[in-house]
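Reagents: none. Just compute today. Glycosyltransferase.
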Amino acid sequence: MEQNKLLMLFVRNPELGKVKTRLAASVGPEKALEVYLHLLQHTKLVTQNLSVDKLVYYTNEVNQDDLWPNDKYEKRIQPAGDLGEKMQAAFAAAFLEGYTSVVIVGSDCLQLTQEIIADAFKKLETHEVVVGPALDGGYYLLGMNCLYPQLFQNKRWSTEHVFQETLQDLQHLHIHYALLPRLSDVDHLEDLDEDLQETFGF
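Predicted 3D structure written out:
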């Protein structure tokens, strides 16, 4: 393990009616939960073999007996506040604990690969910040070598403006940043390819 590197995963507890609510509006809460469980499995698959420390942040409770192996993932409850406040507090805690490269991902991106996450840590060797933009205007990954609170403030979270507003902050603050490939998050039925739609019976 490279002790100075930390991968944080922000996930929702997989509860009926509380995950993928935009998707649930078209396919129902049961199918939305199925899709979310598939997303969690994919996220585990692409993160479990990375040689960095890993920390899963849950929305409301820690389950020690779930799909995240306790010998590979530390588990905590997300800090309080909106998404920006949660992420800022998580990054702040990581740097206080001595990590020097910290990356956060969600659990909504089926196009995310182990190689892309490894590349994010690699880019942090020569850049201060790395961002993985999402096609919906947000981002699926954010990494940094020290805390930049401005990146978490005054953002219209869960809108198509998040990535652009983050980019403007990076440029305004003259932060040396790198970008990863633009990927698709799964929020709506059309975000699933035809094979997956067939798998889930859509």
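The chain is about 35% helix and 20% strand.
Action item: order primers for follow-up constructs.
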